[in-house]
Amino acid sequence: MEQVLPYVWVALGSAIGGALRHGVNRASLALWGPSLPGGTLFVNLAGCFAMGLAAGFFAFRGEATGPGFRLFLTTGVLGGFTTFSAFSLDAALLWQRGDGALAAAYVAISVVGSIAGVFAGLALMRLTLGQAN
Predict the structure, then answer these.
(1) Same domain, yes or no, for 76 and 119?
(2) Environment class of residue 131 by beta-carbon count within 10 Å: exposed (0-12), middle (13-18) or buried (19+)?
(3) Are 33 and 77 found together in one domain?
(4) 21 and 77 in a common domain
(5) Residue 111 and residue 74 share a domain
(6) What share of the chain is helix, strand, coil (3-state, %, to 5)?
(7) Concatenated DSSP letters for 65-116?
(8) Of 82, 110, 125, which residue is a domain's last?
């Protein structure tokens, strides 16, 4: 059971984070329509701020909570809300460790590679499904 419990914490947190993200996306659509990805922008910014708060709390007062809470909040809730927060924390940690070149490469490769991956996946599906435009 001890090996399964971390997955339970992450799953519960992910359900909450995913539901919150869905709510933000619906609210954004109602407020601004489909022309602005305001929901995604909001969850990325809010999620990164929340990840900074969580990382700072766990760094200075983490002993007050168990590892289950850390998994629930960071990997679960914030991971379900936005994975951009985990990416941003990783980049910040590389920078704070004095590895600026690796941090810059990580950010550049992640952003450019992720966008390229979406375009490649779209192109492959268009080719595969015979709807190339």
Answers:
(1) no
(2) exposed
(3) yes
(4) yes
(5) no
(6) 85, 0, 15
(7) S-HHHHIIIIIIIIHHH-THHHHHHHHHHHHHTT-HHHHHHHHHHHHHHHHH
(8) 82
Q: How far apart are CA 53 and CA 29, in angstroms?
A: 28
Over residues 84-118, the pLDDT tens digits come to 888 898 999 999 999 999 999 999 999 999 999 88
* pTM to 2 decimal places: 0.77
What are the two backbone dihedrals, phi and then psi, of residue 35, each rounded to the nearest 5 degrees?
-80, -20
Model pLDDT for residues 31-79, shown as the tens digit of each residue: 999 888 899 889 999 999 999 999 999 988 888 888 899 999 999 999 9
Does residue 92 belong to any structural domain of this protein? no
Domain count, the chain: 2
What is the per-residue burial (b if ≥16 Cβ within 10 Å, else e) of 86-115? bbbbebeebeeeeeeeebeebbeeeeeeee
* Residue 87 located in a structural domain: no
**Residue 39 counted as domain residue:** yes
- Residue whose C-alpha is closest to residue 84's, from 114, 63, 58: 114
For 25, phi and psi rounded to 5 degrees? -65, -40
18 CA to centre of own chain: 11
- Classified as helix, coil or strand, 35 is coil
